[in-house]
Each structure stands twice: as structure tokens, then as C-alpha cells.
Design brief:
Oligomer: single chain
Number of helices: 0
Radius of gyration: 13 Å
Structural class: mainly beta
Length: 117
């Protein structure tokens, strides 16, 4: 299981980005997936997560992104997405995806999102 994020970049405040998290090991479909972010000088925080089909793909969002971000997954492609709309300067961070398999956490290397105010 190996995760890789993409889709980050520089965007103006109010803009949108769609992040992707791909598992090259082709097993992501079986596990819950979380998106986390770490802003400069701050601790990493959970942004959103989505369960696997055993739990009907239930989703969770941290309060600050509710109504703006949408998490989804394409199990056929072993990919998770984070659609981010109405981006704010405070959303600037490195975004990571994570999953857990057999009690072990797997992280991607992150993708940088910069929102200019």
C-alpha cells in the first residue's frame, strides 16, 4: 500500500482545488481514508475522512471545512478525493492522505495548497 497525493497548487481566495490520493498497491478500496493538513508552524490536523463500503462510506468533516470541502472515493481506481471550494487563506497547508491497514498507518508525502488572500 503506497499513497500519493496530487492536485495541490496556488489558488486565489474563493477558488477551488480537487486533491487526489492514489494507492499504487490497489488496496485502498478496503480501508477508510483520511485527509489531514499541516499549516506552517502548526500541528497536523484532521480535515475529513471517509469510511469504506462496509460502513456505507460515511464521512466526517472538521467544523472549519463543512459546506466547503467534499470527500469522496472511487474504489475501482483505489483513489480518494478532496474537493475544496471557497478556499480561504487559512486553508493554506500541506495536505496529506492517510489510511490504516492492519493497525499500521500509511501516509502519502503530501501536496501543498497555497491560498492567496
Amino acid at each position: 500500500l503506497q499513497l500519493a497525493e496530487s492536485g495541490g497548487g496556488l489558488v486565489q481566495s474563493g477558488g477551488s482545488l480537487n486533491l487526489s490520493c492514489v494507492d499504487s498497491g490497489h488496496t485502498l478500496r478496503y480501508y477508510a481514508v483520511g485527509w489531514f493538513r499541516q499549516a506552517p508552524g502548526k500541528e497536523r490536523e484532521a480535515v475529513s475522512c471517509i469510511n469504506n463500503s462496509d460502513y456505507d462510506g460515511q464521512t466526517y468533516y472538521t467544523e472549519s471545512v463543512k459546506g466547503r470541502f467534499t470527500i469522496s472515493r472511487d474504489n475501482a481506481k483505489n483513489t480518494a478525493f478532496l474537493q475544496m471550494n471557497s478556499l480561504e487563506h487559512e486553508d493554506t497547508a500541506v495536505y496529506y492522505c492517510k489510511t490504516r491497514k492492519w493497525g499500521i498507518d500509511y501516509w502519502g508525502n503530501g501536496t501543498l495548497v497555497t491560498v492567496s488572500s
